[in-house]
Amino acid sequence: MLPPTPLAALLVLPATPAPRPRLGLAPSSRRARGTLVVRAAALPALRRRLEFWPSRLAAVESGPPSSQSSAPPPQPGVESSGFGGGGGGDGGGDADFGWVRVFPHVLTASMANFLFGYHIGVMNGPIEDIARELGFQGNPFLQGLVVSIFIVGAFFGSLVSSALVDYLGCKRTLQIDSIPLILGAFISAQAHSLDEMLLGRFLVGIGIGVNTVLVPIYISEVAPTKYRGSLGTLCQIGTCLGIIAALSLGIPSESDPHWWRTMLYAACVPGFLIVAGMQFAVESPRWLAKVGRLDDARKVVEDIWGASEAEKAMEEMKSVVVNDDSQASWSELLSEPHNRVALIGGSLFFLQQFAGINGVLYFSSLTFRDVGITSGILASLYVGITNFGGALVASNLMDKQGRKNLLIGSYLGMAFAMFLIVFSISFPLDEDVGHTLSITGTLLYIFTFAIGAGPVTGIIIPELSSARTRSKVMGFSFTVHWICNFVVGLYFLELVKLFGVGAVYAGFGGVSLLTALFAYNFIVETKGRSLEEIEMSLSPAAPGEPK
Question: How far apart are CA 241 and CA 289, in angstroms?
Fold first, then answer.
């Protein structure tokens, strides 16, 4: 039996004005390092947008909110599909196509997630054939190393990602990052030794580590506010489709022991498509504004959000980047308000991994085998299709129900699914009933993970981050993700041997309940609010504002 593959990341959206909330943050100096400086001239416009912010933003400090806030209705004459229009983005009764202009750009970027999913799924079937041909058959440690070296590469990729994004921007980084993805796939495909296979997988991991940080940032900064959550789920959808593609393409490997080379050569193709496609994609307007290219940023906003939104959008962007053109340092994540966002980001990924996604995926093949589905690839396809279905539901709900509600509901559903499986294992039941409950619990867990815990985690972290430290916070959060992914995969089987599957799954259910409680108390709803609105509300008092 093979060690668990790193599938978690694959799957690894008032009647009276209220004063601007400050989350209990201590006042800072007028120009402290890591604190955003706001131009006084831009404050009136920002104040108008902040008036509808609910007092429950104080939840980050004081506890759960008492009520759900609502965004103001769109102003007459302003396109609701634009940069902050439409509030929650429910769409109304008419057909809403405000997302069409930006869709090709985010779709191209999300191809990187397709490649991520493909490289996870590509080893699911043919690992035994690879081990036989490269001379390490019967060695579970080396087979596990071929799988897990991918995570090691991703760890290093996530560490260097922020420097690349800050210096080169999202567009060029996506293109350059395709080099290790293409090269690593090619080396793996023509490998004639274990060392060559490990080198190829490590290079692919580096590329994936950069992309998993980069793509959510790009989508959050390019997408209009109204559609940011739904478009953000393309990361999860792309990953699911990549897994399904790899598993489907891997079916011939059951009869052709050399088919794995064809599968790895095929992994080069999406890399070339990303390089070519991003040549026609826009750069992030937020990054352009941050590096002083305001005219270019305005042109991008006019092209993908509409000319009517350009002035308002540029005013907001300039208000958070003025006099702040230096590069952020890692040490800034230790200062307020960035430390709070970094803590939330790292905690979400920590809890996500220890809620047991890797363990459930590992044991899913055994669960399906108990009901007569002996093909590991076929069982993985059932899981992949369930995951894809959940991601589609999430894309429809993200900008309607909001990130926080989906996250809480997701983890509650995962906890229920875990306890259902524990019940089927721990209590004397008819064999068919027990197997049915296990299958139901497994698929329910995957589905509920896909509607919240999977996509929301990657969407909400860049939304809560400031323009200055967004790449650093995402890099830190995904570094935590990869470390936890590796640890869970390394010790999962040992825990099962010591305590049994039922006890371990009960622990996963407990962590899921804890995560739902964490989300209820500490996650701020970001639906229908521009990144600048969120940033201003989470920042200490600006110059000229009352302390």
Answer: 34
pLDDT tens, residue by residue, 470-512: 999 999 999 999 999 988 888 888 888 899 888 999 999 999 9
Q: What is the pLDDT of residues 262-304, one digit of tens each?
A: 999 999 999 999 999 999 999 999 999 988 899 999 999 999 9
Question: Nearest Cα to 268, choosing from 118, 110, 164?
Answer: 118
Overall pTM surpassing 0.85 (yes/no): no
Q: Half-sphere exposure of residue 140, counting CA atoms within 13 Å on the CB side?
A: 7
Query: Which tokens go with 67?
Result: 């009520």
Checking 261-265 for CB contacts under 8 A at 24+ apart, the result is 261/189, 261/190, 262/189, 263/122, 263/126, 264/122, 264/185, 264/186, 264/188, 264/189, 264/200, 265/185, 265/186, 265/189
Residue with tokens 């108008």: 48
Q: Which residue has the tokens 């590991």?
A: 376
Virtual torsion, Cα 161, 162, 167, 169, nearest 10 deg: 80
DSSP state, 70? -
Task: Count CB atoms within 10 A of the CB of residue 472.
Answer: 27
Q: Please report, in angstroms and rounded to a whole number, the separation of the first and last CA atoms in the chain.
A: 61
Q: How many alpha carbons lie under 13 Å from residue 34 in its C-beta half-sphere?
A: 16
What are the structure tokens assigned to 475, written together? 């890099």
- Count Cα atoms within 13 angstroms, Cβ side, for 156: 11
